[in-house]
Amino acid sequence: MKRLHGSKSGGALGRIMQQVPSLKLPAREKRALPDYIEKQVIPEILELTFTIEDAFRNMSNAWYKLSQEGKVRALRLTSAVYRHEAFLGAETAGHHLATSMDLVGERLRGAITRLSAGTTLLSNATWRCCVQPKRN
Amino acid sequence: MAVLRSTQEKLVILASAVRSFFDPMAGAEDTVKWFQHDSPRRGGGMTSTADRCPAGQPLRSPSHSHLEQRLFKKLDSVVMASATLGWSGAASDYFNGRAGLAGELAPRRRELLTRFSLRLGDSRLLRIPR
Fold it and tell me: Which value does ipTM take for this structure?
């Protein structure tokens, strides 16, 4: 997540936003894409960061209760553990985490698709420049 | 772009893994799942409180091939001894399968079952917690 959106350098998304003006994209898309990244992708990444913390805190609590106050290092999930009251909180947090990951993945996929259009246009333009007229 | 792609792919895989972990029916037949205590990484990190990690591994995991390729295949000879594994053929087969000795290395494997001298009836102790 830090590589994606670091607090200091802006991460990969920060670098991409800087490069968008130089991409071969329609002017409207050049304005819309950074807006999409800033308003749709980055907030969900930040939300996922909190969700990860929260989910692992819940799992940690469940592990502590289930393993008799931390006496067991590795706790195998048996059907009894799945039914245990302490496990339900961790389970809910886990589902929330998975949903949040899916959402960020979906937003990233959208960004990748839109950026790919720009890079395809760019590579096509490069290819055209490289084609030499046939000599007779 | 590469970072975006790899992150997106990782998120899809991780979301699926998390769902499988919390679904009691997912992999019920052939997967063992456990909570594992993991030491916090040096320097903290984003998930500094995440010192309890969910984990899962297929029972027929690549670990047997890992042992076969990384350990046994590189050695000229290994002597493995057990007081109880030769008790039945099934136990021996099970061990060979799980330890990576039933595949490529099977032709090189030699087994010796000596006379069972342990008097199990006199030697075993059954303890039942109250």
Answer: 0.74
